[in-house]
Amino acid sequence: MDRLRQDLPHSARMYDYYLGGNTNYAVDRDAAEQVILSFPAVRTAARVNRAFVHRSARLLARDHGIRQFLDIGTGIPTAPNLHEVVQREAPDARVTYVDNDPIVLVYADSLLRSSPEGATCYVEADATDPVHLLDVVRRDGCLDLTRPVGLSLNALLHFVPDDRDAYGVVKTLVGALASGSYLTISHCTPDFAPEEWAAIEDVYTKGGTPLQVRSRSEVTEFFTGLELLDPGVEVAHRWNPEPASGPSLITDADASLYAGVARKR
């Protein structure tokens, strides 16, 4: 019971609620409704993020030949999951999911339903201890880190405040990857609605989950030393949009999310 934190709002379950899921409790719904009062577009932002995750993963599998994916901060499974998206493009793709949330482990069976040609696995580790996380991934053996990997840090880093060394976490993770690997990030921003996002930070922090949203320049800094794909760091719904991919007729403030993909030389 304590390990599942059913007495406190949880960011993964709140995100599930924003997406219309059922894997959440009254405490999560109450906190999520506080966020919605401050920022009614948060449900749209969650859908924008999800659409970006799918588009960027498809692009790496389809156009850049990536056959290994490391998804950190997986969250509660919601179909289609990352492996389903990439294995439609490349059935032999291999995906390792990583989270430190025991509730994700409860639902991890749906993350392990790989195509026959590929593979998926789930490991428990904390992104704020990247050295240990990488050791766990290596021991698991699903991925070969000596070959290119698509590293996904989507909707994760705003839960790693500066005092947990967010930039150092990314540097360590990317440093362990082979040349030709890719880093994908989506990150909430206060740039378009600063007062609303200050209130949201307060809701999450009071609920026990520190939240630090960042500006475009701060998000861009995560990609230091890497080659950004076009169009660079962009508001997520305008990052290589596709027809019927995510919500339409939305503003940058509705999305309040920056996204980017970059290649390691």
What would you say about this model in short?
The protein is an alpha/beta fold. The chain is built from 10 helices and 8 strands.
Task: Please characterize this protein's 3D structure.
By secondary structure, the chain is of the alpha/beta class. Helix content is 38%, strand content 15%. The protein has helices at 11-18, 26-38, 42-63, 82-89, 102-106, 130-140, 166-175, 194-206, 216-221, 252-255, and strands spanning 68-72, 94-99, 119-124, 150-154, 182-188, 227-228, 234-235, 257-263. Strands 1, 2, 3, 4, 5, 6, 7 and 8 form an 8-stranded mixed sheet that branches. Helix 1 (11-18) crosses helix 2, helix 2 (26-38) packs antiparallel against helix 8 (194-206) and helix 3 runs parallel beside helix 4 (82-89). It starts with 10 loop residues before the first helix and ends with a strand. The relative contact order is 0.16.
